[in-house]
Each structure stands twice: as C-alpha cells, then as structure tokens.
Amino acid sequence: MYTKEELIEEIIQIREEIGHEYVEPAIRDVHYHNDELTIIAPDRPEKSIIIGKGGWVVGKLREKLGVDSIHVISYTDIILKEYQLELSVKHCAKLMEDSLIPTEYHDAFNNLYELLKAKHEAPYNNTIVEEYIRENINRECYEDAHVLVALSGGVDSSFSTVLTKALGFNVKAMTVDPGTIILPKQFKININNLTSTLDIDHEYVATDMSEIIGDALSGKIHPCGRCSKNIHNKISEKLEEYNYDAMIFGDLLSTGSQSVVVKDDKLRINLPALFRMEKSEVKNVITKYNVKKVKGYGCPLIVQVHKKYPQYRPFSIQRVLRETRAGILEPGEALDLIRTI
Predict the structure, then answer these.
(1) Per-run averaged pLDDT (10 residues), the chain, 341 residues
(2) Gyration radius of the chain over CA positions
(3) How far is the CA of 175 from the CAs of 105, 115, 157, 172, 254, in angstroms?
(4) Which of 26, 97, 105, 181 counts the most CB atoms within 10 A of its CB?
C-alpha cells in the first residue's frame, strides 16, 4: 500500500517520463478497496494533474502499481455529493417516521435506506452500490412489494431496474412504446436482454404520440418534455390498473426531497437521483447485464429535430450542462454528448 507521499513521487516521475511539465500534485487522501485505488485530490485542477493529458499519467500509474483500477476524485465534488446524499437520507428517514411508506414496502425500503446510509458514509467510494447489487441480485423478492419500473432501454432506467431487483422489490418492468422513432430497435434489444437476464416480468405498453411527433417534426416544439409527461402518465395509469403503490424511474437530477415523492398515496422513486449516482457508476453496473450504451444523445426523433431546427439544440445542450453542473457527468463525457447534438 502506497502512502500519499509515495504516490506523489510516482506521479512526478511519470509526468517527467512522458514529457509533462514538472508539477508537484497535492493529494488529500487515498483509499484501497478490493484492488482498487481511490485518490482524493483537493480540487479539480489537482485532479487534472494526477490524471494527465488524455489520462496518460493515471494510466501509467495504474500499470506501475499493478492495481485493477484507479479513481481520481476531487474533494470539492465529494462535498457536494455528500450533502446531496445527506438530504436523501434525511428525506427517507422522515418518510418512514411519518409512516408514508406502505406496509408492503417496509422491508425493501429499509434495504434501500441502509444502502443509502452506507453510500453517504463513504461518498468517495463509487463501488458501494455496484457491490451491493452483485451480492443481492439473486435474492428472493418480498412478494407483496410490487413496483412498476419504467424501462426505456437506456442506461439510467436499466440501472434502476437492476437496483430495484437487488433491493428486494417485486419488479414488473414496463416500457411505453410510441414506435421506432422514439423507441428504436437497439433500445428494445437492451430491454429484452435485461429482462431476460434478470428473469423479471416485462410489458410493452403502446401509446399514441403522433401529435407530439408531428409537432416536433414541424418545428413547433422540442419534444422531450411532452414525451416524458406522456410516459409518466401511462405508467401512472398502469399503476392504478395493477393496484400497485410504487413506480420507479431513472431520473438522475431530482435529488434530495424530489428523489422520493408521495402523491395520492403513491410513491414515485427516482432511484439514480436518490443515490446520487454518476454516469460512470451507472455504466459500470449495467454493462454486466447485457445492456449496451447507445451512442449519441437521445432518440431518433430528437436527432431529426436537431438537424432540421438548430434553434432547439440549446435546449438539449442545457440538459447535458445541468447534469455536468450536478457532478453526474464528467466534462469530457458532456463534451462528447454536446458534439452529437
């Protein structure tokens, strides 16, 4: 196990070997876990020094140390993440204290709460949720804890489906299908692979979005808001039809008090937001369950809107920037998405 001082010397040497200018990096803390090293830098500029241009420095460091992986995190980002997780923990505790969680969900929700507390206690550890899933994905569900999970085939909703099952909820995945212009073949492949791998119930629900599609292709609207509302309404209708009390979505941004909402005695849980997941964490989980990342931003409809009506591109870019400001997306990931927009 290397000390902070030894790591600093190694980084200085590697930077010199590959032709980077001399800089003495600062390291606030280091953590070793399961052959993975986490380096906590004081802030993002120090993080950049440790990573190096194109990731060369941290790549060489990983080879030299012989560890499986190295995560470099800025302490300023951890402070934000820890605060958001604290809000989630307090909110969930209040919901349980006020008896707003239906009885049939108590056991599964308690699992959720304990995992949430564990992540809050170690916000620098980006593998806590992944390890929990690996250990619990084959658990028996609590039979009466029925939930609908909105599954689009993207990485966020796929992650939500996997974690929901690992927590012990009795999962029924549901895909609102407006046609291939919004739900193309590659998303359906992901959906079918995931539900088959997890051995969970799944249902496609047809919906008519012809008006939304027509308005978008004629330049009247940016479609994402109305499309999301349509999907939410369809899932809510099915919730009533099946007489379930909880639905789960893959929203990443609705953190804190908005991550679990109780309305008309029904729960809406935005699972990735509740756990303050980052895109890299989500991707690390879902790749193990036959789900492939679909390149680019959004569905074929929004791609056509961006091409025909460039004035709508800033609305999509703003969504990417919101996730970047929240620390969910790394700047490099955001730049790649913005380029596709």
Answers:
(1) 90 93 92 86 92 90 90 90 94 96 96 97 91 96 97 94 98 96 94 95 96 97 95 95 96 85 92 92 90 88 96 95 86 90 94
(2) 21
(3) 23, 27, 10, 10, 21
(4) 105
**Nearest to 281, CA basis, from 59, 53, 124:** 124
Q: pTM here?
A: 0.90
Report the candidate in 315, 309, 102, 307 with the shortest Cα–Cα distance to residue 228.
315
Per the listing, tokens 């986490």 go with: 38
pLDDT score of 331: 82
> 283 by DSSP, 3-state: which?
helix
Output the pLDDT for position 307: 96
Task: Find all residues with CB under 8 Å of 227, minimum gap 6, and list them.
Answer: 178, 182, 209, 212, 301
* CATH code of residue 187: 3.40.50.620
Roughly what angle, to the nearest 10 degrees, separates helices 224-242 and 313-325? 70
DSSP state at residue 28: -
Domain that holds residue 236: 78-293
Residue 247 pairs with which residues in a beta bridge? 148, 268
Residue 332: the pLDDT is 82
What angle separates helix 331-340 from helix 313-325, to the nearest 10 degrees? 170
Q: Which residues contact 40 (CB under 8 A, 6 or more apart)?
A: 27, 28, 29, 30, 31, 73, 74, 75, 78, 124
The reply to whether 203 and 278 lie within a common domain is yes
Pull the structure tokens for residue 97: 């204290």
Contact 299, 184 (CB under 8 A): yes
Same domain, 101 and 146: yes
**Domain co-membership, 35 together with 151:** no
Q: How far apart are CA 261 and CA 254, in angstroms?
A: 10
Give CA–CA dist 31/70, Å, rounded: 10
Residues 267, 246 contacting (CB under 8 angstroms): yes
